[in-house]
Design a protein that fits this description.
By secondary structure, the chain is of the alpha/beta class. It has two domains: about 5-55; about 80-205, Toll/interleukin-1 receptor homology (TIR) domain (Rossmann fold), CATH 3.40.50.10140. The chain is built from seven helices and five strands; from the N terminus they run αααβαβαβαββα. The chain has helices at about 5-20, 40-50, 50-55, 90-105, 120-130, 145-160, 195-205; strands at about 80-85, 110, 135-140, 160-165, 185. Strands 2-1-3-4-5 form a five-stranded parallel beta sheet. Strand 3, helix 6 (about 145-160) and strand 4 (about 160-165) form a beta-alpha-beta unit.
């Protein structure tokens, strides 16, 4: 096959390949035929035509390394709204709380789920803990015995942004002395609903530190 039909087929194939590299299904403005020699150049030209503010002063993207700009949905914020501090063995009890907060629009640092491949676990946790707008301390029988949890809670005490809740029915004698004067919300029977009184109490405490 040759002539105009072959050209149109080739142009259609180039568009599909460019959209695949750019990871977008949107219609884009193609350059004039003959102005580009490779897919890399084609992608660079299309970016310049359709997103000039993102490509000004940049080198043409490498076909293998190029990634589309991060969006609010995909980027992990370096300053999370909330840092959930809990004993890892109680993860299943904390997940409904995390999910309810995320549903309302809060960015939540939640241990390994918030890490990217290759990142140093301890370094990222330390960074997000200190940067978080509020630290949610999940009191439990296990977390009271965890030196890591208590260290994280001390950061919240020092910054004045500690928000405690209890996923167990805890006794005053269990709570470490430095934390036993803090008011906390009782989540020991939490179902996952954002309308439960305990969750409303948590939101009131969080909103003293975080506005979304």
């Amino acid at each position: 096959m040759g002539g105009p039909a072959a050209y149109e087929a080739g142009q259609e194939e180039d568009l599909k390949r460019a959209q695949k590299v750019l990871a977008t299904p949107d219609q884009v403005s193609l350059p004039e035929p003959g102005n580009t020699e490779s897919l890399t150049e084609l992608v660079a030209d299309i970016l310049a035509r359709n997103h000039p503010d993102q490509t000004q002063g940049q080198k043409p993207p490498d076909q293998k390394a190029y990634r589309p700009p991060a969006t609010a949905e995909t980027a992990e914020p370096e300053v999370p709204d909330l840092f959930l501090s809990y004993a890892s063995v109680r993860r299943s009890a904390v997940l409904p709380i995390r999910d309810a907060l995320v549903k309302l629009g809060y960015s939540v640092f939640f241990d390994i789920e918030s890490l990217s491949a290759g990142e140093e676990f301890a370094d990222i946790i330390d960074s997000r803990l200190k940067a978080a707008k509020a630290i949610v301390a999940c009191f439990s029988h296990e977390s009271f015995k965890s030196r890591w949890c208590k260290s994280e809670w001390r950061v919240g005490l020092h910054k004045g942004n500690l928000v405690p809740l209890a996923i167990d029915a805890v006794d005053l004698v269990e709570i470490p002395t430095e934390f036993n004067g803090l008011h906390y919300s009782d989540f020991s029977g939490y179902s996952g609903s954002t309308t439960e009184p305990c969750f409303r109490n948590l939101l009131r405490a969080i909103r003293r530190h975080v506005r979304i």
